[in-house]
Amino acid sequence: MSRQYHYRIDTEVKFGFLKLIDVNLIREQVTDDWANQTLCRVNDCVVRLGVVQGEFHWHKHDNEDEFFYVVDGRLFIDVENGPTVELLPNQGFTVPKGIVHRTRAPDRTAMLMIEGATVTATGDDD
């Protein structure tokens, strides 16, 4: 049974090879509270832009690590049985596969995520 969440997540690759990607322009066009757009594919990974405010649900990725990089705003990453990490612009953090985590943004925040192309963007169901 799949869970339903109130996020806009677009897993289709928006930009092919040799295309300019203007992250700030895309960020400015987002009107949702929680939006995730797959920008491009790099080898076996994808780069996603998240423009978020609020909190994501607790989840994990069984087979893929996930890298977060804050472009604008402030992002908290809560790790189950671990620390909460605060990321400011130009800071990044990697969550290893299998670790339960969630992201939170008290204010509108833009982040880049790099993860395996096979990752389920809402996390793996238990």
Find the structural class using helix and strand composition.
Answer: mainly beta
**Tally of alpha and pi helices:** 1
Stretches with pLDDT under 50, minimum 5 residues: none
Give the N-to-C terminal Cα separation.
Answer: 10 Å
C-alpha geometry? globular
User: How many strands in all?
Assistant: 8
Sheet having the most strands: 8 strands, mixed
The CATH homologous superfamily is called Jelly Rolls
Average pLDDT score: 91
Question: CATH class, please?
Answer: Mainly Beta
Which fold name corresponds to the CATH topology?
A: Jelly Rolls
Examine the secondary-structure arrangement and name the CATH architecture: Sandwich
Count structural domains. 1
Q: Report strand %.
A: over 45%
Q: How much helix is in the residues?
A: under 10%
Rounded Rg: 14 Å
Report the order of strands and helices.
Answer: EHEEEEEEE
Structure description:
The chain has 126 residues and is mainly beta. The chain contains one helix and eight strands. The chain has one helix spanning 23-29, and strands spanning 8-10, 34-42, 45-55, 66-72, 75-79, 84-87, 92-95, 101-116. Strands 1, 2, 3, 4, 5, 6, 7 and 8 form an eight-stranded mixed β-sheet that branches. The model has no long low-confidence stretch (mean pLDDT 91).
Give the arrangement of secondary structure elements.
Elements: E1 8-10, H1 23-29, E2 34-42, E3 45-55, E4 66-72, E5 75-79, E6 84-87, E7 92-95, E8 101-116
Parallel strand pairs: 1-2
Antiparallel strand pairs: 2-3, 3-8, 4-7, 4-8, 5-6, 5-8
Q: What would you say about this model in short?
A:
By secondary structure, the protein is mostly beta strands. The protein has one helix at 23-29, and strands spanning 8-10, 34-42, 45-55, 66-72, 75-79, 84-87, 92-95, 101-116.
